Amino acid sequence: MNQKLIAGNWKMNGSLSFNQALVGALRAGLQSPAACRIAVCVPAPYLSQLAELLKGSPIDLGAQDVSSHDAGAYTGEVCAAMLREFGVRYATVGHSERRQYHGETDAVVADKVRLALASGITPIVCVGETLAQRESEQTEAVVKRQLAAVIHANGHCISEIVVAYEPVWAIGTGRTATPAQAQQVHGVLRAQLKAATEQADRMPILYGGSMNAANAAELLGQPDIDGGLIGGASLKAADFLAIIAAAGRLAA
Ligand code: 13P
Fold it and tell me: Which of 98, 178, 204, 229 is deepest in the core (most CB within 10 A)?
């Protein structure tokens, strides 16, 4: 079995002192070697601080977005090549908060994925339905449409992405998808990837949405759940470590 991938999405949280304390506690609590892959996706201004703090640790550095342009007159944007200079290995792309508050379309997300891959950054491509979409039985159609745009624009490189299924109604709400609900959608996404690449079985499909220390083991135990993308619980060292430990036990 592939090692699980546990990625923290700090969102717009942190400070120089908070980051230092959190990474210190994570490093102190991690087993060596780590039994799963670990990453933290941090706000852009902290990338250089985190690059230093994570040196020599098993935790990879991630960003939370990447521009859909490669350089030029795009005020406020950060391109993939810049992220790469700070040792960024992963970037979340198309998070529902970016789709919702920043108007990111499937086409923009697909471009961002293409440029991340071109710079050697692994995009963590987020897909997921709203509560209204779930209640009107559009979940499959929505996640398939979101992933199809990325597959279409990225051809054979698609095997290099990570997918994260994040039901919008489960993000930050304390309301988690049941393991069966999550597995069902992960199965749909796996089948879609299989139609696009022979590598689909080794591609990580993460679950995100109120994953925490108490529910991680059961979610991560599902056959098509290859890891987690964790928001709130990634800001608490003990909780994030417990999720990492749960992932490690499953790989053992
Ligand atoms: P929570 O874990 O806080 O629900 O956030 C999930 C998420 O959006 C991760 O990208």
Answer: 229
- Judged by DSSP in three states, 120 sits in coil
Instruction: Please tell me the distance from the alpha carbon of residue 172 to that of residue 13, in angstroms, as a whole number.
Output: 14
- Residue-wise pLDDT for 41-89, tens only, equals 999 999 999 999 999 999 999 999 999 999 999 999 999 999 999 999 9
**52 has catalytic annotation:** no
166 is catalytic: yes
Please tell me the distance between residue 50's alpha carbon and the centre of ligand 1 in angstroms: 20
> What is the atom index within ligand 1 of the atom nearest the CA of 11?
10
Question: Going by C-beta distance under 8 Å and a sequence separation of 6 or more, which residues neighbour residue 178?
Answer: none
Residue 237: its H or E element = helix 237-251
Task: Give pLDDT, residue 67.
Answer: 98
Q: How far apart are CA 76 and CA 134, in angstroms?
A: 34
